[in-house]
Amino acid sequence: MKTLQHITILGSTGSIGTSTLDVVARHPDRFQIFALTAYRQADVLFEQCVRFKPKYAVLLEDGAVARLRERVREAGLSVEVLAGVQALEQVCTAAGVDAVMAAIVGAAGLRPTLAAARAGKKILLANKETLVMAGNVFMDAVRASGSVLLPIDSEHNAIFQALPRGYDGNMQTHGVRRILLTASGGPFRDTPLSELHNVTPEQACAHPNWVMGRKISVDSASMMNKGLEVIEAHWLFNAAADDIQVVVHPQSVIHSLVEYVDGSVLAQLGNPDMRTPIAYGLAYPERIASGVAPLDLFKIASMDFVAPDFARFPCLALAYHALRAAGTAPAILNAANEVAVAAFLNKQIGFLAIPQVIETVLNQLPVGAVRDLDDVLAADAEARSAASAQLG
Ligand code: NAD
Ligand code: MG
Which of 156, 259, 303, 316 sits between 20 and 30 A of 391, alpha carbons compared? Predict the structure, then answer.
């Protein structure tokens, strides 16, 4: 049965945000945009407002807010333009919102996504950093409010689809033996190790299979993205580090797999296009058209699988280490990574310095317990300053 869903998109101008709007536009009878948000892309957000007529638009930067207000007024649109982090929370928790697409990049996504969870909204979670930083706080909030949580990260969406319906976090009672998390290996999978020290941000962002924002593209090149996804899978599916196996699969056709105790292995396949998991999340438990081309198995012809190379990709090992260390360790890992990736994108440090910065910060800072959001935010701030200090 079709009921109209009112949707807030956090990060609507980004890669996931625009793909979400692409799917939404195909189903005007199902979805209506309640709010759109971005950091400072006033002109792109204005065009989206013209097309999708949200009630609210939120920006974070003052100059951009003024520009959008001006353009909205000139065009005579009835969109209310709001500013700041509190406004992000407001458009997630408002009574008129049914679902929130959490597609801000990085730690900035945590507060509004958590607010949506506390308000019991349906959450389409792309912002994996929320779970990496504050997994227990966030999952507690989801359980307490009864939020429906739908993973949008393609791997986790695949796992969600391959797990039994009604899976409650107990692998044993559901006969699940392992989770197999696929990884493309990124643009540097086969680059000679001797060349990795002078790769450029442009090379790192040229992903062979997926078109994504710059931060996650660098994370994919270092395989920190897969490390963050291991931690994300831990929280989403209540799987221990030892029960999550990374499988390098360069074609990115199998988006992940679930292995059962009887020997069955269930996978979800498709073309590498985020509109598939987005459409799944938007219409769940129904299926709707996403605009993604049908998978042509004859064209793919063959698929490869290899074990991850932890020596080539130290970030992956660091993420497993942080997951096992628990407490604030994943938040420290995430913050140090964000600082290091930004420095790499600004050409302040080389590619191989990214894991060095993170490892030093992880060794330097004590790991504490996570009781509430403040513990997470304190660890995040401390790790950012420790990482910045290393950049000189
Ligand atoms: P992106 O850089 O393309 O877009 C980020 C969006 O967040 C933009 O709208 C930007 O304006 C907004 N934003 C950035 N900084 C902000 C801040 N400080 N405050 C408020 N808003 C801010 O990123 P993306 O590739 O779309 O990724 C978004 C999230 O989805 C990330 O957490 C990423 O890991 C996850 N994800 C992305 C993909 C993908 O294919 N792009 C796949 C899986 C998961
Ligand atoms: Mg992914």
Answer: 316
